[in-house]
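User: Sequence recovery, please. Input:
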């Protein structure tokens, strides 16, 4: 391929390597050309005729970041994406995104790089849609109050674009989530298992708009799940009976701030193995929630009763053993019939 300039000169990949304001990459079965100071006029692309040949001309390549809040709280999830633009409009070109490397860095208030996240446009991880030009991310700032900097970067074989955004981290949390052992409660009120405690800061969020999704996972057995509305500033939710310290309770709290902004806070807690300290005991006026923990049961039979996969496994193994025994018996019988037949033939000959 060659490019004819307005002044009549022609440039190919070899000549472009000797020009300071040209970058030409042809390593992936296509030509990607970046020109820093293109001259005005009419340009011509000269290439062999092919119905699959297409040209994409970008005259004002830039990098944008989706709207993110200017102030967040500790543990809060920030969701967004990076996208290349041309004159402010998103570029959706799969052939272009295939060659890109996208990252986002978090620089804390002290100037240290707290994290570096590699992004993708392939609907993997935190990216929502494949090859839509958007490199999605979900992140939480390190727990250091102050101004953090998000540095988004997209690099291609012939160019690089960078964008920076400031996010202030508050010192206060909208939600506090903890697990308390039964021994920590007042005598006569203790449940049969540990309890999930949720406290809301009503100065930050509207308690009536808060929901809790929680999941209990143990080394053995199917998980329990629960989705419940929390309308009180302090709530406690009893875990199902016989949940051992080897289990974990994880999930997410979603709420609405007084400035009409959605807040999402994930959590991941270990079931306590020993009594909690005295200062974590709940007062008698704490609101009790009585949600239903739903266990992930196996698929139901036709009569509506749940099917335990272990029953199927046992039945399959029993069936295989029976088939093996039948096969052995059949082979033994065939061997015996063959011997009898040979004996009769020998007697007939004699």
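Assistant: Recovered sequence (350 residues):
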């Amino acid at each position: 391929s060659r490019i004819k300039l307005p002044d009549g000169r022609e440039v190919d990949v070899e000549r472009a390597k000797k020009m300071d304001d040209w970058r030409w990459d042809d390593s992936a079965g296509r030509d990607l050309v970046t020109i820093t100071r293109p001259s005005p006029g009419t340009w011509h692309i000269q290439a062999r005729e092919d119905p699959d040949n297409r040209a994409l001309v970008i005259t004002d390549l830039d990098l944008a970041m989706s709207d993110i809040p200017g102030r967040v709280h500790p543990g809060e999830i920030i969701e967004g994406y990076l996208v290349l633009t041309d004159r402010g409009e998103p570029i959706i070109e799969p052939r272009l995104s295939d060659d890109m490397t996208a990252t986002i860095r978090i620089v804390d208030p002290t100037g240290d790089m707290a994290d570096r996240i590699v992004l993708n446009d392939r609907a993997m991880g935190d990216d929502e849609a494949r090859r839509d030009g958007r490199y999605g991310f979900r992140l939480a700032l390190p727990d250091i109050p102050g101004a953090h900097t998000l540095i988004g970067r997209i690099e291609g074989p012939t160019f690089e674009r960078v964008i920076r955004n400031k996010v202030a981290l508050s010192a206060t949390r909208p939600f506090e989530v903890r697990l308390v052992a039964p021994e920590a409660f007042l005598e006569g009120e203790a449940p049969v298992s540990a309890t999930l405690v949720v406290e809301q800061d009503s100065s930050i969020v509207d308690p009536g708009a808060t929901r809790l999704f929680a999941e209990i996972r143990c080394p053995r057995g199917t998980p329990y799940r629960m989705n419940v509305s929390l309308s009180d500033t302090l709530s406690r939710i009893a875990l199902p009976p016989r949940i051992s310290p080897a289990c974990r309770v994880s999930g997410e709290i979603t709420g609405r701030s007084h400035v009409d902004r959605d807040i999402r806070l994930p959590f991941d807690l270990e079931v306590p193995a020993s009594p909690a300290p005295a200062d974590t005991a709940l007062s008698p006026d704490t609101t009790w929630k009585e949600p239903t923990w739903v266990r992930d049961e196996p698929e139901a039979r036709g009569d509506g009763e749940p099917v335990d996969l272990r029953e199927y496994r046992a039945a399959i193994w029993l069936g295989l053993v029976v088939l093996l025994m039948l096969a052995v018996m059949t082979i033994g019988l065939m061997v015996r019939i063959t011997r009898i037949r040979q004996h009769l033939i020998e007697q007939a000959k004699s």
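Residues 184-188, 276-288, 299-310 have pLDDT under 50 and may be disordered.
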